[in-house]
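[09:14] KT: can someone run the structure on this one? pasting the chain below
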Amino acid sequence: EWLQSFSSRPWRQDAGEALREYIRHAERNFAENIIGYHVCAEASHEWSYGWWGTLHDYGPAQVSGFRQWLTERHGGSVASLRQAWQDEAVTFETAQIPSGESRRKGDYFEFFDPARGRQRIEYLEYHSWVVADAIRHFASITKETAGRNKLCGVFYGYYFFGENALLLDVG
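[09:31] RB: done, structure tokens below
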């Protein structure tokens, strides 16, 4: 897979340093011509994990990030996690990202019924959170490096679109 994981700390560190170097170069050489920076990542540079039904990032960084987020969300209570997911066997160490098939099919059109278990809902909440957190990370680097007087923008915030709104994974 050629796309990074928004949960990857090494990616954030390496890409963050590359962004700093790029901005330093641009500011050194072209500052008077630059009003701001457009920060982008992922397939179409729009901070989106999936387009037209593609689902990815089942890698170790995403799974680990999701498990940590679940631990915080449920206050470390396995009982709370099990009740929310309606799964008596799940623990923070065994929690998995829901399958693509289950993530594509809502209970009521695009909507998931929390009464049927919150695994898909909580994963999509984590997914949205981690993308927004990555944007915050890189926007902070941009503002710190370029200065507060430079603009910083991103393409982000899509909701349902397309023929039948299969993009439940767009943050």
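[09:33] KT: thanks! The CA atoms of residues 31 and 40 lie 20 Å apart.
[09:34] RB: yep, looked fine to me
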